[in-house]
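hey so u asked for the seq, here:
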Amino acid sequence: MFTWTPDMIRFMHAANETGTYHQQLADILAPKLTGCRTLCDAGCGLGALSAALSSRFDAITAADVSEDALDVLRQTILARGLTNITPLHCDLLSDALTEQYDGMIFCFFGSLEEILPVARRQCRKTLIIIKKNYALHRFSLTAQPLRGETAQAACETLRAMGVPFSFDARELEHGQPFASLDGAVRFFRIYSKDEAPDAITPEAVLPHLQKTDDPRYPYYLPQIKRLGIFRIQMEDLL
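ran it, structure tokens below
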């Protein structure tokens, strides 16, 4: 199970507050959820997607197993005066919850084997599943195969199951700002899947970064996030 650490939360919060990734993603997802008034953002993390979607729905439940991550969302809710987001501390993949929602989003959270039973139990209308649509790990200095279920693998599984779905491939910038070069090295050491982590040095990391004019974040790691977005209507799944 993915576990948020203070460093991970700090890095992700910086990426979220300086970029437009989640707003762009919300603009893509909202039309796919037409007719849904209530929504569950499953495995919401820091809740940036929930916040970006908040104006489009009557009520959003943002569920995550990490209280530390949800605390960031609670701060966002207070800062922006959001009134229709409810943080929920739980593990949707294992907790036997029964509350139902018109729509559910599983963004880089869970495998199909885990997601589909939850959706059958708790989703009334539309299920959105977002998978990584690439083969190599993004935050490694050497070519390392991606771990976990990719968009291609999910397509193959759904077809084998005979489940109708629509698929939308998108590419959005979601880079990482850094307050220092040492911070960038720490980031790569946390996320890298390189076989020789000792090789992650300032000299090795610096060529991957751009220098910026932002005094808060003088370094930036540009990254295109390639998404595979699945839309499943629940009448086709039940």
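The longest helix spans residues 67-80. The chain is about 35% helix and 25% strand.
lmk if thats what u needed
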